[in-house]
Each structure stands twice: as C-alpha cells, then as structure tokens.
Design goal:
- Helix content is 54%, strand content 0%.
- The radius of gyration is 21 Å and the shape is elongated.
- Helix 2 packs antiparallel against helix 5.
- The protein contains six helices and no strands.
- By secondary structure, the chain is mainly alpha-helical.
Length: 136
Amino acid sequence: MFLHIHRRVRKQIAESKLPKLSLSNNKATSVRIWRRKFNAWCLLQKSWRDTSKNPTSPEHWTAEKAQHEIAAFYLALPDDILNIFDTTIHERMTDTEKKQPWIYQQRLEEHFVGQDDVMPQRIAFFNCTQITQGQV
C-alpha cells in the first residue's frame, strides 16, 4: 500500500508545473530563488539528472538529457527575460557552454547581480533629517 502511494505521489510531483521566473525589485535574489526551485523541479524529472552525484557539480547533469533541461529553462522564462537572455547572454556563450544546462542558469544569475532596485534606499536617505549640532 505504502509503495503504491509513494509512486503516485512521485508521479504527481514529477508532473508538477514548471516554476516560472518572476522578478521582484531584488532581481538577483529572485533569480537565485527561482534557480533553487527550477533545479528541484528538474531533479523530479525522470533521468534528467544523476542523483548519485553532487548536485553542485557539473557531473550531476546527464549529458543525454541536456537538451530537455535547456528547453525547460527557456519555457520557464517570461518573454522579456528570454529576450534579454537571447540578445545579451546567449550570444556571448561558446558552443561548448551552449551544450551545458548549468551554464544557462549561472549566466542568467550573473547578469542580474547588481541590478537590484535602489529606490527604497534612496527614499530612506532623502527622508532622513539631520540634527543640527551647532556651528560648522
């Protein structure tokens, strides 16, 4: 009985929806969180990854299923982010890198590092008041 339920739950999880990237004001953090969800989803897909290997090493990916994962990566990106990826990131990747699914995720995250919204910090700065302490 337990084995039957276990199989059914695994099947439902594997058939779950692909996590879509949604950017917030902190773009780098949004991509980092999405990468964790995307990688977890990919692990649930049958034979896409070698679960006997370290999940942070490139050996974790199965070469025969690389195109499946790259296709899923593209499907998970909203149109505007996909356009950014195609026009600024993908064109700078080497032919070897284009065959390695982990590079796609890595390059996307690197692209958004440092592009966080600084408006909340600016508003806090401009709204602060200085106490006068006397003569200058």
